[in-house]
Recover the amino acids of this structure.
């Protein structure tokens, strides 16, 4: 939709508000790097760790040295084993794996909170991590709190369409069909809202004289 609007009208939004289902690394990178739009989108992140254990946030990223520092201030590096044919460190999931040294972890006092069942700690860093960081920083701002409130105002209309007006699936096929059907549903919703506001039954309890 953003592409279509940009193509037809030569305009694009300054910020994009969406829920976590749009917070994948690829999507955030497209919004930040390709479209240069502020992502007011929560980051899809499953690396928080169990309670009492060190999640990804406990590890500090050093961009220049291309490594992480663990809570014990030891290095986690992306080690490439020497293969005959040079291989890319990027995995199929578009991440780069950073590993601590077994030697460091063996004697570490924090091991029980870090990697109790493995010989060393691994951190998978997305190749789109810089875009995820942009979204994370925006999530800390007051502008983001306002965006979240604005999003709820729109989402409640979709929820009403789905749950109350039973508009849970599209019956017509193709973009034109979807467009027409959605336009009709939105028109019906607006008419219903207008009628409710216009012909609101009077609340006789307000200002009614007290019974003696
Ligand atoms: S267990 Fe290893 S990675 Fe974890 S804090 Fe200790 S030295 Fe660092």
């Amino acid at each position: 939709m953003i592409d279509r609007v940009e193509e037809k009208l030569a305009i694009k939004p300054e910020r994009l508000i969406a829920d976590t289902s749009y917070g994948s690394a690829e999507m955030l990178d497209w919004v930040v790097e390709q479209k240069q739009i502020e992502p007011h989108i929560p980051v899809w992140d499953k690396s928080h760790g169990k309670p009492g254990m060190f999640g990804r946030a406990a590890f500090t990223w050093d961009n220049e040295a291309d490594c992480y520092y663990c809570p014990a201030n030891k290095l986690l590096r992306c080690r490439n084993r020497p293969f005959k044919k040079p291989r890319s460190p990027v995995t199929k999931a578009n991440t780069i794996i950073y590993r601590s040294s077994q030697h460091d972890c063996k004697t570490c006092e924090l091991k029980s909170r870090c990697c109790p069942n493995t010989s060393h700690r691994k951190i998978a860093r997305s190749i789109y991590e810089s875009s995820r960081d942009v979204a994370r920083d925006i999530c800390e701002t007051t502008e983001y709190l306002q965006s979240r409130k604005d999003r709820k105002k729109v989402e409640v209309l979709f929820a009403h369409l789905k749950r109350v007006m039973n508009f849970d699936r599209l019956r017509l096929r193709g973009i034109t069909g979807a467009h027409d059907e959605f336009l009709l549903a939105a028109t019906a919703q607006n008419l219903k809202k207008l009628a409710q506001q216009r012909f609101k039954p009077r609340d006789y309890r307000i200002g009614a004289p007290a019974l003696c």
Q: What stands out?
A: The chain has seven helices and seven strands.
